[in-house]
Each structure stands twice: as structure tokens, then as C-alpha cells.
Amino acid sequence: HVVLAPTEPTPADEAKVEEEAETDAKEEEYEPAADATTVVVLSNVVTDADLASDEAVAAARAAVSTLVAKCGHFGPSGGVVGMEVPAPSGSSGAGKVFVELTDTGKATKCRDALEQSEYQGRTVEAAFYP
Predict the structure, then answer these.
(1) Position with higher pLDDT, 126 vs 62
(2) pLDDT bracket for residue 25 (50, 70, 90)
């Protein structure tokens, strides 16, 4: 039986890894829109029924987190700092979803990814929150 010893990477291997890392970093960068803020507000995502009870709000937040996953994942390296679904109905911001991102480039990418997307049969509206 043959045992393979670990090999040291060649300079060509190291250059390829470095080039791939630079490409990945460039793909993650996104030019911020002129009016960008770090908060994106989503409209037409939750309904009054979604906000009718604490249990419904909790379920709506869990469901909406799958939509927000299009913006990145939660945590500093993922871009998404937090998400808020204000409740109950009638309160300021009810029916909207607020997504905070780490920078305006990621917020622009999030807005662009979600604007006019479909969510539970509704067309999502996405804009920067002032």
C-alpha cells in the first residue's frame, strides 16, 4: 500500500491561489449607488395577517430571513448586520422589513437583488432607508 506524503505548493500553485482570492474579493465588491445608505427597506413583503399575533410575527421573521439571505449571511463577514420586521400592524414601519448591511456597496447589491423580486406571490419593492 502506498502512502503519499504531503507536498509543498509550487510558486505556480501559490500564484493561482492568490489570483483566485483576488478574483473572489473583486466579485464581492459592489459599487455603491449615489443615494445608498447601509439600510435597505423592503415593502410588500409582510401583510397585516403576518403581523396579527406574536406567533405570526415570529413566523414572518423566520420566513423573511430566507429572502434576506439573498443579501448575504448574518455576521460581519456576511454583510447582513441585522433585520427588523416592525409589529404590530399600525405601528411606524409596520408591513416593511428593514435590513442593515455592513456597507453601502453591500446595501446596493442587496437592493438590486431584491427589487422587483417575487416573494409569496407579491412583488418586492426595495429602497434605501434615509
Answers:
(1) 126
(2) very low
